[in-house]
Model the fold of this input.
Amino acid sequence: MARVVVDVMLKPEILDPQGQAIARKLPQLGFAGVSAVRQGKRFEVELDGPADEAALDQVRTIAETLLANPVVESYEVRVL
Amino acid sequence: MDAARVGVITFPGSLDDRDAARAVRLAGAEPVALWHADDDLRGVDAVVLPGGFSYGDYLRAGAIARFAPLMEKLVDAARGGLPVLGICNGFQVLCEAHLLPGALLPNAGLHFVCRDQRLRVDDADTAWTRDYTAGQEIVVPIKNRDGRYVADPDTLAELEGEGRVVARYLDLNPNGSLNDIAGVRNEAGNVVGLMPHPEHAVESLTGPSTDGLGFFTSIVKRLVEA
Done:
């Protein structure tokens, strides 16, 4: 059984007010030197079988179809 | 002739399906309740996708509702010319289903916004806005968390160039939508998405105005004339 991670992020040109809110809070907490935060989503997909190329292709299709909205988000697939 | 039949789809988590049905009735049409899990549009002449939080807005607003059995039928029918109006969550579903361009993201101010909103109807040529005049200003409620309309620069230029921005926010942009966009249409003009809620402004007793009724009377007139 394999576990595949799908990271979904807003495309760089899309405003991320949640990330900005987090970044604004950091100096108040005493954390210096952070210029920006972008917030994304991580999905862990468990497979019945091995994470071979066919299985990874299917995960990519899942990511494009449901996990990410390609209009505003990009995604990356990797085996954990 | 028989009254036009306008379907209103209820998803788990829909909130405004009854208000939408009431607006349809006040406009002179017969509302037809449609259920997301059915696969039959019951021969309706037009469809309203109501506001709410379909499937809890899990993953993204509208992302799961898009794959409801009835939505597959609706996507085909909309591509074939069936008039469809998506309000708030319905707008989000239409974008997720790629019947409309762009996407709706969390409000720039991060707060849920609920207030009476002044709008300008910029496109009075769609199936749902013919009872307005281009440039007409109306007041209808807005209430959303994920109402920030975004699209890539090319899509935005196309929408503006082709006059496909149906309505725009006036006074104050409540959610950070690009170009103050409150609603857009598809190329053919039969599919319209709108973030504010015209179905909550159809009676003076409960709404800030009756300005919203025009969306529903527009479709009824179109169906009667057809």
In short: The domain at 3-79 of chain A is CATH 3.30.1280.10 (Mth169; Chain: A ,). Chain A has a mean pLDDT of 96. Chain A has two helices and three strands.
